[in-house]
Amino acid sequence: MTAETSQPANARVAAVVIGRNEGARLTACLESLDGETARVVYVDSGSTDGSIERARQAGAEVVALDPARPFTAARARNAGLAALGADAPAFVQLIDGDCVLQPGWIATGMATLDARPDVAVVCGRRREAHPEVSVYNRLCDIEWRGPAGEVRACGGDALARVAALRAVDGFDEALIAGEEPDLCVRLRANGWRIHRLDAEMTLHDAAMTRFAQWWQRNRRAGHAFAEGAARHGAPPERHWVREARRALAWGAGLPVAIALAALIQPWALTAVALYPLQVVRLAVREGPARRAAWEWAAFTVLGKFAEAAGALGYHAGRLRGRRKGLIEYR
């Protein structure tokens, strides 16, 4: 055992929390980190709800981003990593300000990182705190699920090696979405591995109660798919190529094809039935006896229209030489 690994787990880990107007969610997040890490850095992206004061009262180091530059989650995380300085602990827990760290996660994640020097990032189970509040929260909870083992990417909550993140220059601050998978693409290109553990990591509070919020979130996903494919879509990575193509095919290509065909042959409108048929196919695959399967299937198909809007928006901006601003759902 090295001198480093003989230290308590929390002495070797710092936390970087990012947020914007998270209110009570931020307080809960910071409270969950108490005693779990050696340091806590909170990076604020222009909050107007007293988040900075909340963080300082909780004992966190605070970095307030300059509003003269566009806010992105990637920029905030990089600012937090920079604030750790040259004497940063070896590991960092990245966590969004609307999440609560689960007891025991740091020790569980550290055990894997200590045992696997080839692993740069570990993540665990992120659950939705209030799936009973709305179908949109339940859809988030389904989204967070994933198999344990080696994976291609992590999400915004993850435990990582600081040196590995710095070696690839951290997150790409120009990205308004999909910055974590982009980081993981570059980490894997440098020989690192990413692991998802079968362990509770964080509780997330999406606080989505309106259709418009859900639509914006899916539009952001479509933007991320398109930009991710544009950046890393070449073989062998093929990053998000399939997701971007599906969004454009179901959300834009097929509707346009049906409309054009109907101008020639009105019966072509019957092709609209492909959408409910796709819902049935997906629900049956997931288990037709479960209400959640039907909810997920219906919104997955409907979500392709929002994703297509996001993807088309990315490509339109790219052609004009303009970068898209943040797509926020809260």
Key words describing this protein structure:
330 residues; 17% strand; nine-stranded mixed beta sheet; 11 helices; alpha/beta
Topology:
Elements: E1 13-19, H1 24-33, E2 39-44, H2 51-57, E3 61-64, H3 73-83, E4 91-96, E5 99-101, H4 105-115, E6 119-128, H5 135-144, E7 149-151, E8 158-161, H6 162-167, H7 179-189, E9 193-204, H8 211-232, H9 241-264, H10 274-286, H11 291-320
Parallel strand pairs: 1-2, 1-4, 2-3, 6-9
Antiparallel strand pairs: 4-8, 5-9, 6-8, 7-9
Helix pairs in contact: 5-11, 8-9, 8-11, 9-11, 10-11
Account of the protein in words:
This protein is α/β, with parallel strands linked by helices and 330 residues long. It has two domains: 9-208, Spore Coat Polysaccharide Biosynthesis Protein SpsA, Chain A; 228-320, no CATH class. Helix content is 47%, strand content 17%. It contains eleven helices and nine strands. The chain has helices at 24-33, 51-57, 73-83, 105-115, 135-144, 162-167, 179-189, 211-232, 241-264, 274-286, 291-320; strands at 13-19, 39-44, 61-64, 91-96, 99-101, 119-128, 149-151, 158-161, 193-204. Strands 1, 2, 3, 4, 5, 6, 7, 8 and 9 form a nine-stranded mixed β-sheet that branches. Helix 8 (211-232) crosses helix 11 and helix 9 packs across helix 11.
Helical percentage: 40-55%
The largest β sheet comes out as:
9 strands, mixed
Name given to the CATH homologous superfamily of the largest domain: Spore Coat Polysaccharide Biosynthesis Protein SpsA, Chain A
The domain tally reads 2
CATH architecture annotation of the largest domain: Alpha-Beta Complex
